[in-house]
């Protein structure tokens, strides 16, 4: 996305503050979402040509073999007051009826505590809550960065990442302030520091995994995939995301996968797997992330050294 497009979207987002009519605001939101989702390969449409089914927009993945499963149902609420859990329940119900696995609730206002709690504990599908600040952050994440000294950027990022890792060890609540992409950078640095060769995949079109790990064990090269979900809304990972990651690890015939979710997993996501699948895929929550960071700090301090069994280090303390 070029700078002029970024400025146009930012201007549209800012204009929502001066729009009183909900229908006009919804039209503007469509102009905001269309280019943002296009960056991830989606096209935005109005479902069935009407807006009375509980979902205002439907984003479909281009070239998808399963257009419903890969779709995103989007509802926009132009409120002066907070958006409550009743709106979240209504959106979830509409998505279930339409067979959609992922929905996005967008508002010019704020979300109530009960709305966040509903998603964290009870949502049966992936639900994203986005206010104006979240939209602005979205624009910033996909902006085109002018050419610069990449080596210098790398040094600065590694320095900052090292400090974040130390901070997480001292106070795990620091995780609540870290953005999802930065969390992936943190874990990539952690795995490299522990003896793996860790490669961070692109922010979009990542092939179903966030970090690729390779290591040599008993003269044999082993490969593992790591999927990271750091949803600051507090949402737990459900069966859909787990099934997709399991499919990738099985189809690509790697040695194993580690699914890290800082806010945990729904009970059904883990319990639905067979014993054989559980051997292929392991799960780690916040405590696993903190443990990995702690091992990294110890290794960098020279008071601890990873042994040759890196696979054991990878899976230790997992579900």
Q: CATH top level of the largest domain?
A: Alpha Beta
Q: Total helix count?
A: 12
Major beta sheet summary: 5 strands, mixed
- What is the ordering of alpha helices and beta strands? HHEEEHEHEHHHEEEHEHHEHH
The neighbouring-strand order within the major sheet is 1-2-3-4-5
Name the beta content range.
15-25%
Count the strands?
10
Compute the separation of the termini in Å: 40 Å
Gross morphology: globular
**Unreliable stretches covering 5 or more consecutive residues:** none
What is the residue-averaged pLDDT?
A: 85
Number of domains: 2
Secondary-structure-based class equals alpha/beta
| CATH topology term of the largest domain | Trna Endonuclease, Chain: A, domain 1
Offer a concise description of the structure.
The chain is of the alpha/beta class and 319 residues long. The protein is 45% helix and 18% strand. The strands form two sheets. A five-stranded mixed sheet has the order 1-2-3-4-5, with helices on both faces.
Describe the protein.
This protein has 319 residues and is an alpha/beta fold. The chain starts with a helix and ends with a helix. The chain has helices at residues 3-15, 22-38, 85-98, 113-121, 132-141, 150-170, 180-193, 239-251, 267-271, 275-280, 286-301, 310-315, and strands at 42-45, 57-61, 72-77, 102-107, 126-130, 197-200, 211-217, 220-229, 256-261, 281-284. It has 2 domains: 3-141, Trna Endonuclease, Chain: A, domain 1 (3-Layer(aba) Sandwich), CATH 3.40.1350; 150-315, Trna Endonuclease, Chain: A, domain 1 (3-Layer(aba) Sandwich). The strands form 2 sheets. It has a 5-stranded mixed sheet with strand order 1-2-3-4-5, with helices on both faces. It has a 5-stranded mixed sheet with strand order 6-7-8-9-10.
């Amino acid at each position: 996305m070029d700078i002029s497009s970024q400025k146009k979207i930012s201007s549209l987002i800012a204009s929502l503050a001066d729009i009183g009519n909900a229908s006009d605001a919804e039209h503007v939101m469509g102009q905001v979402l269309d280019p943002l989702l296009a960056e991830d390969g989606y096209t935005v449409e109005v479902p069935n040509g009407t807006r009375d089914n509980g979902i205002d927009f439907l984003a479909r993945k281009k070239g998808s073999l399963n257009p419903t499963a890969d779709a995103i149902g989007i509802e926009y609420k132009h409120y002066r007051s907070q958006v409550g859990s009743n709106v979240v329940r209504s959106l979830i119900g509409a998505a279930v009826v339409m067979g959609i696995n992922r929905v996005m609730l967008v508002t010019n206002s704020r979300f109530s505590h009960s709305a966040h709690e509903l998603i964290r504990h009870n949502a049966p599908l992936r639900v994203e809550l986005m206010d104006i600040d979240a939209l602005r952050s979205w624009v910033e994440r996909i902006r085109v960065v002018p050419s610069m000294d990449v080596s210098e950027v790398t040094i600065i990022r590694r320095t900052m990442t090292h400090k974040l890792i130390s901070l997480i060890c001292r106070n795990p609540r620091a995780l609540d302030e870290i953005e999802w992409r930065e969390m992936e950078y943190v874990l990539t640095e952690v795995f490299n520091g522990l003896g793996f060769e860790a490669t961070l995949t692109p922010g979009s079109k990542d092939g179903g995994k966030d970090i690729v790990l390779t290591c040599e064990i008993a003269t044999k090269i082993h490969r593992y995939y790591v999927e990271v979900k750091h949803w600051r809304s507090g949402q737990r990972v459900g069966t859909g995301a787990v099934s997709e990651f399991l499919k990738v690890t099985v189809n690509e015939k790697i040695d194993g996968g580690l699914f890290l979710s800082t806010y945990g997993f729904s009970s059904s996501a883990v319990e639905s797997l067979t014993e054989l699948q559980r051997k292929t895929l392991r799960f780690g929550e916040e405590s696993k992330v903190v443990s990995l960071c702690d091992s990294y700090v110890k290794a960098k301090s020279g008071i601890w050294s990873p042994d040759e069994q890196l696979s054991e280090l990878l899976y230790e303390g997992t579900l």
